[in-house]
């Protein structure tokens, strides 16, 4: 009722006939990736197929390397999420230019296995990362996930599948739990799992290789330990970016701030920065492209008072990321006012 199984099967069967994305919007979650993707589509870019029937995910995020296809993340089948080569050829002949194709999965930045797997098939792709003050990002993610749990309870859903003491009782508890050795071990396991997926073939091969490859264990999906135990990874942008810099050149990376997108013409400015990194993205700065403001989408709703973090909680969280923010500033080439 909430997925597209027949279309997914068709796309898997036609993997060799499809293209790879020109660039990837990696995340982080709750930083404006949905709004940026909506802007990109408004100027003619083509987003990925999403198996979920969910308006904000449609044509925005493949969720492929997040393991939403029963843990299948082998690069050999990644092209199932993107248009047919014939469709792209026809569009280029008709309009005189090849459309720009992107993937906007915001959880690919944090997933410990994703960087290695993506580099196996898209080594020349441009990468866009959007960052936001960690304490603001944490509050937004906390609100989204806790509201989802409240909604689930109201629908009569049980919680017997959750681990002991989950969900955490407060945002501070969740952040502390995300820094424990238990969660760190899960992330190390996730990184090793990505290497096992590639195996000796290094990501080569198509659908058959993907189906035969090891899958990411359900315990690790979509975030090792659970959505509310990913905070320490989400807030340390520099750590995640450096994981990608092991496989991609620094000039392939564009880092933007959420507050930059919120400014008039901010999304257009980010698109121009992307275009400057790759000839394939030149259409993003073509004349006539509207410098429209990004729509504000998927904003988190407030929680009941007993679950809302206090301002002192947020200040405490911010203090914990000072060094990580300084490192991020070095990667961005300027000092952040965080």
Topology:
Blueprint: H1 5-13, E1 23-27, H2 33-42, H3 85-95, E2 102-103, H4 114-121, E3 126-131, H5 134-154, H6 171-178, H7 181-198, H8 207-212, H9 231-235, H10 237-245, E4 253-257, H11 258-262, H12 266-275, H13 311-319, H14 322-332
Parallel strand pairs: 1-2, 1-3, 3-4
Structural notes for this entry:
With 338 residues, this protein is mainly α. It has a single domain, classed as P-loop containing nucleotide triphosphate hydrolases (Rossmann fold, 3-Layer(aba) Sandwich), CATH 3.40.50.300. 41% of the residues lie in helices and 5% in strands. It has 14 helices and four strands. A four-stranded parallel β-sheet has the order 2-1-3-4. Helix 5 crosses helix 13. The chain is globular, with a radius of gyration of 20 Å. The mean pLDDT is 92.
Keywords:
Rossmann fold, 4 strands, 5% strand, 14 helices, 338 residues
Task: Give the structure's gist in a few sentences.
41% of the residues lie in helices and 5% in strands. It has 14 helices and four strands.
Largest sheet: 4 strands, parallel
Q: Could you say which overall geometry the principal axes of the C-alpha atoms support?
A: globular
What is the CATH-assigned architecture? 3-Layer(aba) Sandwich
CATH homologous superfamily grouping:
P-loop containing nucleotide triphosphate hydrolases
What is the CATH C-level name? Answer: Alpha Beta
**Total number of helices:** 14
Output mean pLDDT: 92
Q: What class do helices, strands and sheet pairing give?
A: mainly alpha
Number of domains: 1
Distance between the termini: 43 Å
Strand content: 5-15%
How many beta-strand elements? 4
Which sequence of strands runs across the widest sheet?
2-1-3-4
Low-confidence stretches: none
Instruction: List the secondary-structure elements in sequence, H or E.
Output: HEHHEHEHHHHHHEHHHH
Give the helix level as a range of percent: 40-55%
Rg result = 20 Å
CATH level 3 topology: Rossmann fold
